[in-house]
Amino acid sequence: GAAWNEKPDFASDISCELKDEEAAKPRVLIVDDQLFNLKLLESALKEDYIVMTADNGIEALELATGKSQPDIILLDIIMPVMDGYEVCIRLREMPETRDIPVIFLSALKNEKNEEYALQLGVVDYITKPFSLPIIKGRLRNHVEQKKYRDRQKENSYIDELTQIANRRKFNETVTMEWNRARRNGNSLSVLMIDVDCFKKYNDFYGHLEGDKCLYKIAQTLKSNVKRSSDLVARWGGEEFACVLTDTDRIGAMLVGERLRRAVVKLSIPSEISDVDRVVTASIGVATALPAVDNSLEELLHKADMALYKAKKTGRNCVCT
Ligand code: GH3
Ligand code: MG
Ligand code: MG
Ligand code: MG
Fold first, then answer.
1. Tens digits of per-residue pLDDT, 73-90?
2. Residue ranges with CB less than 5 Å from ion ligand 2
3. Any bridge partners for residue 245, and if so which?
4. Which residue has a Cα nearest atom 22 of ligand 1?
5. pLDDT tens track for 251-268
6. Contact of 64 with 70, CB cutoff 8 Å
7. 293 FRET partner, CA 20 to 30 A, in 111, 151, 206, 233?
8. What spacing in Å lies between the alpha carbon of 315 and ligand 4's midpoint?
9. Coil, strand or helix: which one is 173?
10. Is ipTM > 0.90 here?
11. Sign of the dihedral defined by the CA atoms of residues 67, 73, 74, 76, in that order
């Protein structure tokens, strides 16, 4: 029977449908210091896009680096404090915003301005006064290409054997989250996870069973990190790495302990294991406050050292 606090079925269905539709809509960020332009473009685009707006460069950069990033940016050039060129340069400098296509939308009609804009790597240059159908058409084409590139990229981020994120994805994510944590003054934690005595396991059961075991462990690790911003990836061999955003040492230890237990609970039989004859893993935890401790390499090294300690401590444990 339904619990007292459950929503009626139809209500959850409706909100679900709306959410799916919203999620399918591409996001466009419009940046212009003229409120009139923002309003005009917003009302023209809001049917097909999730529209974000900014009336200055600083705010535009904040939105572009935020949690829900735009798929494309319509950028005015002449703005006080920070002009469109500078916004564009900064977007290109940061790995997390580098691939967002930018369209300049400017009253500057001369060749030099357009040439410079193209040098900065914008995908298009539209002059004001603009035609709404042309803007819509160009936006649609550029967004389509962006989505295609995104799909290609997603595929290059998946580890073949375990079907979770690979090391490339981990490196990009951890770098991005490091920068984000430094900007926001949050702590960042990394876990290094290594399957115990896996050489022996392979020797005993064969490589094929070893592969199956890695798949199961990877899937379990993945389903046991709860936040959408957290990531578990295959680091290589029988090692996995996990990045936890906005998580301090205690929080990271708790997640580590949850992951360790989850691997034990999988109960993958292992004759060579002295822990209830099941496969286990050791976990090293490291935490940094990127604003103060300023090297990501150091954080990864610390996690590695903690893992080494966990191995020395007797395996199937979490160390920091
Ligand atoms: P420890 O508890 O100290 O981690 O010991 P270990 O045997 O797990 O560590 P070691 O680094 O000596 O061996 C790792 C083994 O993992 C070696 C290799 O045969 C196995 N391995 C690495 N990648 C794969 C893989 O993709 N598939 C399979 N089946 N085995 C792998
Ligand atoms: Mg302007
Ligand atoms: Mg290893
Ligand atoms: Mg190992």
1. 999 999 999 999 999 999
2. 33, 76, 78-79
3. 188
4. 237
5. 999 999 999 999 999 999
6. yes
7. 233
8. 9
9. helix
10. yes
11. positive
